[in-house]
Amino acid sequence: MNRQRLESQPVDSATIETLAGKLSVLACCVFGISLLFAIFSLRCLYADGSYQLTEVLKAGDFVAVAKNRDCASFVFQLPVVMAIKLGFTNLHLLQLAFGVGCFMPWIISMLFCHQMATRHFWLVMCGCALGHLNASFMPVGEYIIAHAFFWPVLFAVLFVRPLTPLAAGMMLVSALILLYSYESLLFLGPPLALLTVERLFRNGEKFWARLAFATTITLLLLAAVIALDGVRHPDCPDNFGGFKRSLKSMLFNPSWTIGWSFVWLFMLGVLCFGWQNFTKKNFKLELALVATAMAIWGLWPLFDPESLSVDRQYESRPMQLLVPFGLLVIARLMISSPKWFAAQRHYLIAFSASLLLAQSLWHISATWQWHGFVGVWRGMLASSSGPVSLSETPVGNPTMRGQCLKFDWSWANPNLSLMLAPENHVRAIILPRAKPFFQPFDPLEPTDFPKLQRYGLDYGDYAKAILKMKFSSRAQSPLPPPRGSSP
């Protein structure tokens, strides 16, 4: 009887917190591996990444990509621009440098937060898993930078008491990056500034700390004003309308990763509010079920490549606003109700870490599919000559022998063809199925190509193929009648 009663008791919080600590280390390691894999698989070239890298290489310097987002673009482009300024011309190395700029900002942000408040690190893990990894397969979205550097400001304002010089430096650097980052600062900037004002007038801070807080408030409010201008006068109104449509689709027709995230949040709520607990009798079985669910969640792109639609990550970019805003509220409640959060700490850490682990596995699996797609794309470029319509290639199909092929990005296909040219010899360019709304250069006119010869790109074979195609076209067309002859 006593044994049955003992087995039906909930698992003690210390046991779960110990497991959660180990799971956190594992999750962060797997997240780091996913970013390294993204860099070395050249995922920075996905979507308009190839276009942005082409523009930077062409200019040999920073380029403005979108209105009011210069700081975010600066972060993405910094490593590759530094490499160019140092004299590097190897195209593959420059692509890797661009990948570092695209995928390392979140690592920097998480290191900042871990340095400032290790105890509350679960918050940034949850933000990364729930917000960032649900909407970040596309490498160069400025909303990625806005979300990443939101966290060091929040951690410095709420959790570093008194403010240290190192935390102040991290806070100011992050606030400066947020200044020109993304329109989401219209909604994130004022609440962050309000929390900073509250901290500014608290006793116990030195003059230099108050000055740092005042500077941060100014930067955050300016960021909100700049974001308001971006909302009122968007570069591309269609994208703004797409953002609102994506919000509705995300809530009522969630993607694979968002659907699982909602399930995880529901489970966390059930445990935190005491509606259910892990029991000692079934603890190992319950852990096995959770691990199985995480494996299915994370490895699904390998099991069912045809269902993989990474473009839905772009449609889910509202998560990069909703998640930090919601967690900001929770972080403030942690200050006002510390006892309740301390009692649930073991669950909060465990579920944040498991979220990060499962989402990182999904990104590794999806990036593996991207890696295979790059191989197929390079093979098509090596075996073709001149302009090739996408519909005439295997990539015109969604999958091929277990390989997902849904990674082309219409108007950016010519840029991707340049960046992935075999041995830097451009022999062929893969064109979109239909003429796109935007065309960085005319793929049928080699003289219009970006001047990238100093990086080893050779357009000679492609120019010959175009010349041959034009000559053949003229030869097949009927000659006009001699001038003055009767019809």
Percent helix, as a range, is 55-70%
Oligomer: single chain
SSE run: HHHHHHHHHHHHHHHHHHEEEHEH
Instruction: Kindly report the average pLDDT value.
Output: 90
General form: globular
Q: Structurally, how many domains make up the residues?
A: 2
Instruction: For the record, give the distance between the C-alpha atoms at the N and C termini, rounded to a whole number.
Output: 110 Å
Beta percentage is under 5%
Number of strands: 4
Radius of gyration of CA atoms, rounded to a whole number: 26 Å
pLDDT under 50 segments (min length 5)?
Answer: 483-487
The largest β sheet comes out as: 2 strands, parallel
The number of helical elements comes to 20
Q: What strand line-up does the widest sheet have? A: 1-4
Structural class: mainly alpha
Itemize the secondary structure elements and their pairings.
Blueprint: H1 2-7, H2 13-40, H3 49-59, H4 70-85, H5 91-103, H6 105-116, H7 121-132, H8 142-159, H9 165-179, H10 185-200, H11 207-232, H12 237-252, H13 256-272, H14 283-303, H15 311-315, H16 319-336, H17 338-343, H18 345-383, E1 386-389, E2 399-400, E3 403-404, H19 413-419, E4 428-431, H20 460-476
Parallel strand pairs: 1-4
Antiparallel strand pairs: 2-3
Helix pairs in contact: 2-5, 2-18, 4-5, 6-7, 6-8, 7-8, 7-16, 7-18, 8-9, 8-10, 8-16, 9-11, 10-11, 10-16, 13-18, 14-18
